[in-house]
UniProtKB/TrEMBL annotation:
Residues 106-354 form the Vps52 C-terminal domain. GO terms for cellular component: Golgi apparatus. Belongs to the VPS52 family. One of its GO terms (biological process) is protein transport. It comes from Triticum aestivum. Residues 4-89 form the Vps52 coiled-coil domain. It is found in: Golgi apparatus, trans-Golgi network. This is Uncharacterized protein. Keywords: Golgi apparatus, Protein transport, Transport. InterPro entries: Vps52 (IPR007258), Vps52_C (IPR048361), Vps52_CC (IPR048319). The keyword Protein transport applies.
């Protein structure tokens, strides 16, 4: 009978619906003899229509399970045309309507659950593993394997502590998701936050389309949540398993930022259908991030300083890990934070490190100057007061001449050596540049005093 449900049938059904509605609401008509004569016929037509319409609609739902079916196109091009059939069921046969709703929920729940399960399995093959339980900042002989392997291993795990280009994912928040077959063909691998964004992008688009369809077709928003119980359960199970094995704090923070931005996307769409899911995702992510963050801190406490000692001028690789990780969190907080200012303790800590950096730079500059211009500095300190204005001793040509000649011969070479040492010791170009500027200022000042001193001889 599927072929008989056409436009003419729908017109006849609408006419029957009007007659049934009229017979139900008009009390005078209910008592009339004319209605009694046709009441049995109306009831027969109602039951027949209910049976036929419900079977037809459920038949369409069954076709959704066929492989390769584009559900969104089927909903828009076919089902929307028959929404009056569902309204007829809802108005004149609530039991049949409930059967149709149950059939739709059952079919779509299974179809979408399977689709997301297949997509997740395909995405898993694209995952680039970054960070395991042994890859933490510090070192403990029983649990940690990263630090003893030094800088070479650090380069291999650069993504774990450094944000770098991983932050680009936040600029692509609403871009189309990954197509696994294309990525596999090109042998591409991605950090998990890229996979997470693609999964949530598919979920958002699918949920938005489904929510709008259910609201228009069934006029019952609660059906959406029953339809998506299965897909959300599949995603939840995968997320719990992934988070339990994730030790990449940068990835976890990026996932938090992605979820917050997806909340904004759904808010802009004015669709509340994923509010609960996105809130729950954050509830999963924040505790795991704190756990991994605490592991990083604990690993620093467990460090064996003697085993980790490296005699060299480069910053220690643990320090680099810590600074890159801290800088990454600061950047992500600036992009996705809640806008709240840091507390007094954090401000005090910031001031402490700034003062510590300043004092260390001063000491570093003094040591460099003493290493390359020690004779000159000692001479100036011995013969000129601290305010660099008055002389503490009477000038002596025999004392000045070798100092000036030595300075004239080696100052250019000494500056080059100082520059190389600053670049080697200061991985941060801002701090390195500040050190070079301080050196040049000090040398210029000393040179000026020597020239002034020479003129008095």
């Amino acid at each position: 009978f599927f072929w008989q449900v056409n436009d003419d049938y729908i017109k006849s059904l609408n006419m029957l619906s009007k007659k049934l509605r009229f017979a139900q609401v008009d009390p005078l008509l209910n008592a009339s003899k004319a209605l009694k004569d046709i009441k049995q016929e109306l009831e027969r037509l109602r039951k027949k229509a209910l049976s036929k319409v419900s079977a037809y609609v459920i038949g369409i739902f069954s076709s959704m399970r066929k492989p390769g079916t584009n559900i969104q196109i089927l909903q828009q091009n076919l089902l929307q045309k028959y929404r009056h059939l569902v309204l007829f069921l809802k108005e004149h046969g609530i039991e049949k309507y409930n059967d149709v709703c149950a059939a739709y929920v059952d079919k779509m729940n299974k179809v979408l659950s399977e689709d997301f399960r297949v997509y997740l399995e395909a995405l898993e093959s694209l995952k680039l593993d970054i960070g395991v339980s042994t890859d933490v900042i510090g070192y403990d002989a029983n649990v940690v394997d990263l630090i003893p392997r030094g800088r070479e291993q650090l380069r291999n795990h650069r993504f774990m502590f450094s944000l770098g280009e991983r932050s680009n994912i936040l600029k692509e928040i609403d871009q189309p998701g990954l197509v696994p077959c294309i990525s596999e063909a090109n042998s591409l691998k991605y950090p998990y936050e890229v996979i997470f964004r693609s999964l949530q992008k598919l979920l958002m688009d699918t949920a938005s389309s489904e929510y709008i369809f259910i609201k228009a077709f069934f006029r019952d928003e609660s059906m959406f949540y029953r339809v998506f119980e299965g897909p959300v359960a599949v995603i939840d199970e995968n997320m719990k398993l992934t988070l339990a094995n994730s030790h990449d704090a940068i990835c976890l923070m990026l996932m938090i930022c992605i979820t917050k931005k997806h909340q904004l996307v759904m808010s802009n769409r004015r669709l509340p259908c994923l509010d609960t899911y996105l809130d729950k995702a954050l509830i999963y992510l924040w505790p795991r991030f704190k756990t991994v963050f605490d592991m990083y801190i604990q690993s620093l406490y467990q460090c064996d300083a003697k085993m980790l000692w490296v005699d060299g001028t480069h910053p220690h690789h643990i320090v680099r890990c810590y600074m890159e990780f801290t800088a990454s969190l600061i950047q992500l907080n600036a992009e996705c934070g809640d806008g709240q200012e840091a507390g007094e303790e954090a401000k005090e800590l910031r001031r402490y490190f700034e003062e510590k950096l300043e004092s260390n730079l001063v000491s570093f500059v003094d040591e460099l100057l003493m290493e390359y211009f020690g004779d000159l500095i000692k001479f100036v300190k011995n013969h000129i007061s601290e305010d660099l204005i008055s002389y503490t001793e009477c000038p002596n040509i025999a004392d000045v001449e070798p100092v000036v000649k030595n300075f004239a011969v080696k100052w250019r070479t000494a500056l080059e050596l100082m520059h190389n040492e600053v670049v080697t010791c200061c991985s941060n170009f801002v701090s390195g540049g500040s050190s070079l500027n301080r050196n040049l200022v000090s040398i210029t000042s000393i040179s000026y005093e020597i020239r002034k001193y020479s003129r008095t001889l």
